[in-house]
Amino acid sequence: MTMRLVGLTGGPGMGKSTVAQILKGRGVPVVDTDDLARKVVEKGQPALDELRVAFGEEAIGSDGCLRRAWLAELVFADAEARRNLEAILHPRIMELWRGEANRWLREGCRVGVVVIPLLFETNSQDEFDATICVACSAGTQMKRLNERGWSREESNRRIGAQLPIERKMHLSEYVLWTEGRLVSTEQQLKRLFPTEHVPPDRV
After folding, report:
1. Given CA atoms 20, 22, 25, 26 in this order, what sign does their dihedral have?
2. 168 vs 63: CA distance, rounded Å
3. Is the dihedral of CA 123, 124, 128, 134 positive or negative?
4. Phi first, then psi: what are they for 75, rounded to 5°?
């Protein structure tokens, strides 16, 4: 049986996690690279030692865990630091989601979804049979990020660290618009992922 692998991307606060939860509820296997990013820097993982070398002891808390907030503040204000972080994390993250995709294939899944915020930034699009961009208006995005407790400055730094959403929409085969009520998002997903889990084809 052939499995189709779908890459799901979008800007921060645009609804990727919500879409992932809906798909999981419908029985579609999903892996989120944000979750994998946390996994690869757990205590005892080689990446944590590399981050200590790259960013100094200040990157590690007294409990031996990565100071994620401290590191985020650093890398979103310093493009070179962000590139150093990505060079350490991205290969490991890719290895993990590829492993999940291979497991889905062995289990006979017809479709699987990988959530990758930096899908196009990392030139990963050719790994997928189709790509979907989750998007909303800039005003709604800022409102959602504010509800997370992010300042406008922090939100702008994180948004600016990615490709403009218009570019992601242009590069994707499909755009899923999350501006309206949740039922609208669910209806769009039903068209893209029918109950028999037939995934969209690349156009």
Report:
1. negative
2. 38
3. negative
4. -75, -25
At 39-79, the pLDDT tens digits run 999 999 999 999 999 999 999 999 999 999 999 999 998 99
Contact between 13 and 158 under an 8 Å Cβ cutoff? The reply is no
The full set of domain ranges for the chain reads 4-34+95-192
Burial environment of residue 31 by CB neighbours within 10 A (0 to 12, 13 to 18, 19 or more): buried
| CA 29 – CA 114 distance, rounded (Å) | 9
pLDDT digits (tens, 9 = 90+) for 83-141: 999 999 999 999 999 999 999 999 999 999 999 999 999 999 999 999 999 999 999 99
Q: Which fold would CATH assign to domain 4-34+95-192?
A: Rossmann fold (3.40.50)
pTM reported for the whole predicted model: 0.91
Q: How far apart are CA 32 and CA 115, in angstroms?
A: 5
The span from the CA of 74 to the CA of 68, in Å, is 10
